[in-house]
Amino acid sequence: MYRNDENIIIRTQQKGIIFKGKETPKLSPFQSIVELLNQEEDISPVQNVFDKIVESKNIPISNSLFRLSASILKRYEDSSLTQIKNSGLRIQIKLALVYRYDREEFDKIKSLFTEIFSNIEDIKIDALNKDEFPLALANFLKEAIIIKIKEKNIDTWIRQENISSGMLKTLMYISELYLAPDDSVILIDEFENSLGVNCMDSVTDLICENKKIQFIMTSHHPYIINNISPEYWKIVTRKGGLVTVKTAEDFHISSSRQKAFLDLINVLEDYPEGLEDE
Fold this sequence. Notes:
About 35% of the residues lie in helices and about 20% in strands. By secondary structure, the protein is α+β, with helices and mostly antiparallel strands. Strands 7, 8, 9 and 10 form a four-stranded antiparallel β-sheet that branches. Helix 5 (about 90-100) crosses helix 6, helix 6 crosses helix 8 (about 165-180) and helix 8 packs parallel to helix 9. Strand 1 (about 1-5) and strand 2 form a beta hairpin.
């Protein structure tokens, strides 16, 4: 780890951790240096940045129920948008809070969503009807909420379990753009999973346009790779047990987006054991 071009931490198998030229007492080999030394003045800023990382998990949410408890509603009743963004709550709960307490911000999210899915005219976050689940579960599910959408020229609302995974994932990505704390770092593994071709380009463009949040994404999809400048690529390669992370420049990949993907294909042919593009 470097600070002002000076290597302040070295970790080796022989000597363990050397911090600012001195060997430390033996510390756990199963924890990162940042975690072990996060109280040190030189390390704490790194920990503070790591604390801003938000992992966007590729988990199916179509059949998931979310609980918006009375205590959370009360706690954030008079909160500002910034307080909701910095709350550390799951993105679905943040979305429910702005739906209830900041409809103007919610409408911005809805507007972007309906631009991508032009057949949708409205979104709401609704409580479950008590008649929709067995009496035995009534107490457990009384605070459950679900997402509903309404298509144009159709009177009935579509419940969350009947909304496509691509639609729901797009809504969550847009919500993260608006509701993640400023200066967050959002990790998205296999960004294209469940995103249809009709929304992949729009969501990619929204992420590229956002200047307040840093995104670290893995992807193998040509559209996504072609629409992110090679200067931001990190190419992860593996030969046997050796994993290496390099830049596009290290592989002499063209800065031209049209040619860059073809250059990347040539690199891929040299690493048949595995290559991931971020």
